[in-house]
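Predict the holo structure. Ligand: cytidine-5'-monophosphate.
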Amino acid sequence: VYVIAMDGPAGSGKSTVARAVAARLGFDYLDTGAMYRAVAFAAIRRGLDPEDRDAVAAMIDDLELDVSLAGVTVDGVDATVEIRSPEITRAVSPVAANPVVRTELTRRMREWATRREGCVVEGRDIGSVVFPDAQLKLYVTASVEVRARRRHQELSDMDYDEVAAAIAERDERDRSRSNAPLVEVDGSVQLDTSDRSVDELVDAVIDLWSEAGEPS
Ligand code: C5P
């Protein structure tokens, strides 16, 4: 299977570029952040404390998750919109730091990929942990200001300073956790999205992909 791994912090523009690249190449696309968000949603829905590792670990095995371009369902319930709410965004960091959750979701990501020919997978640990053999690894970044502005535009009910603080806190948690932190791995190519258009970025990734040589 051909894998393009795209990692980077919140608001870096990963999703936008990843989806467009997948569409251009005819590859499947997987948003692994949505999987972690879906687990956080399930925990909240069951009245669990997202920080309660054992309780969250206990529900993960038989949790039915369906994450696709069409949306996200959790145990058959549509959660496409809810997983983007500030409540879930707050709950996702402790859930993503839970080793049992990470092991199970990583297993599901790999299983998902075995049924594809080519895929674009985005997240935080895709090139480092989930698909260390990915043919192309991208580390997507943008300045803090640009990232906060993007998120602020999506979340019109929060003020800019609140959004900027929440992003900084989540990035810090993603970078400093002991289990599969966000890191820039050797061999990854940096893609700064601060002041390039989506079309330019997609072209740049497609060029990198052809250089990566459609490996055998
Ligand atoms: O990408 P998104 O912002 O939707 O991701 C939500 C959260 O899920 C991240 O802040 C991170 O804690 C977690 N995550 C992760 N590993 C991934 C993808 C997301 O820990 N591969």
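The first helix runs from residue 14 to 25. Residues 10, 32-33, 36-37, 92-93, 96, 123-126, 170, 174 surround cytidine-5'-monophosphate (CB under 6 Å).
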